[in-house]
Design a protein that fits this description.
It contains 14 helices and 4 strands. It has a single domain (about 10-285), classed as Ribonucleotide Reductase, subunit A (Orthogonal Bundle). The longest helix is centred in the N-terminal third of the chain and has 31 residues, at about 85-115. By secondary structure, it is mainly alpha-helical.
């Protein structure tokens, strides 16, 4: 059963959903541009220049074009979806678009506000990629007459300030977990084409390679500045690992029918993605979350339950609703804190910094 609390029936609904800020909705970010300008990657100059050549080659320049089968597949498959399943898929598209557009805005703002040629060039390429991704998703929303006004979204959604190192940790994880999510879905539907209920999934393989490369860029920045990966910063790394994993788990469990339609189970899918992301992050993070610890699994389940109770309290409204929201927020903070202090897994960094999307 779907646990979404609001339906999206009109373009206005879709735009409100994209603007909304909640515990699990994608956020827009800004940062300290002067500090970003001071980033030095000279310690890994050869690897950095090779990566920029890959961006310049732009092997996905012609990928995000809808083929003649696209509209036909939409017309054939979408009417077969239940109203609840349709809502979960639309929610998935709106959330995905907001996340992709968040990257586009952040990278473009950094590009405009720095003079450091390495960072400026990198951000130009990544903003280009994320713009394509967001625009491609928006075309599918327009099929439902639910297109997002990206200009209005940029003006009206709240922005969160993060120091550059927090941008590196969070965005590296976001890009790598994005790869793991997309490739897991793509492989599942490659094995089971009868469960591909929308043609957008056919684009996921090359699409997620963009995500992987973006993560590689932040990996090089952090490995070129090793102070970001030791000392007190290890506690921040633990925080962002947990925040990203917990957000994904809660968000995915509000859309169980979406995964069932693909032949996946939300919990099994999430832990497969966590496991892949843990393997990938060995290139940068000296610690990983112990995702098999029983208390970790129980804690994520409780965070989802807290999220559902919080939404129910918000819908109730009034004084009682406010009190219940406050209580659930405290429960959520307590649960997150317990998860944070669980033992983590120490791991040596890989000798080769660059990785290939081989999963």
């Amino acid at each position: 059963m779907s646990t979404l609390t609001a339906t999206i029936e009109t373009a206005e609904d879709a735009n409100k959903k994209a603007v909304q800020d909640s515990m699990v909705s994608p956020r827009f970010y800004t940062t300290d541009f002067n500090a970003m300008d001071r980033i030095d990657v000279s310690a890994l100059r050869a690897e950095w220049d090779a990566m920029l050549l890959e961006y310049e080659g732009d092997n996905n320049h012609d990928h995000f074009q809808r083929d003649e089968r696209f509209a036909e597949e939409v017309a054939q498959t979408m009417p077969k979806l239940s109203p609840e399943m349709r809502q979960e898929f639309i929610d998935f598209l709106v959330s995905s678009l907001t996340s992709e557009f968040s990257g586009c805005i952040l990278y473009n703002e950094i590009r405009k506000n720095v003079t450091n040629p390495d960072i400026k060039q990198l951000m130009t390429y990544m903003a280009r990629d994320e713009s394509r991704h967001a625009g491609f998703i928006n075309q599918s929303l327009r099929d439902f007459n639910l297109g997002i006004d990206l200009g209005d979204l940029k003006r009206t959604k709240a922005y969160t300030f993060f120091k550059p190192k927090f941008i590196f940790y969070a965005t590296y994880l976001s890009e790598k977990i994005g790869y793991a999510r997309y490739i897991t879905i793509y492989r599942q539907l490659e094995r089971n084409p009868d469960k591909r209920f929308h043609p957008i999934f056919r684009w996921f393989e090359r699409w997620c390679n963009d995500e992987f490369r973006h993560g590689e860029s932040f990996a090089l920045i952090m490995r070129a500045n090793p102070h970001l990966l030791r000392g007190l910063n290890l506690y921040w790394i633990r925080f962002f690992l947990l925040a990203v994993y917990a957000t994904m788990y809660v968000r995915d469990h509000t859309r169980p029918m979406l995964h069932e339609a693909m032949g996946l189970h939300s919990t099994e899918y999430d832990y497969a993605v966590f496991r892949m992301t843990n393997e990938i992050t060995k290139q940068v993070f000296p610690v990983a979350l112990d995702i098999d610890h029983p208390a970790f699994r129980a804690g994520l389940t409780q965070l989802f339950e807290v999220s559902q109770a919080f939404d129910a309290a918000r819908q109730r409204g009034g004084v009682v609703g406010k009190v219940l929201q406050g209580w659930q927020a405290l429960r959520g903070l307590y649960t997150f804190g317990r998860l944070y202090f669980l033992p983590v897994v120490s791991q040596p960094l890989t000798s080769e910094i660059r990785m290939q999307p081989a999963w």
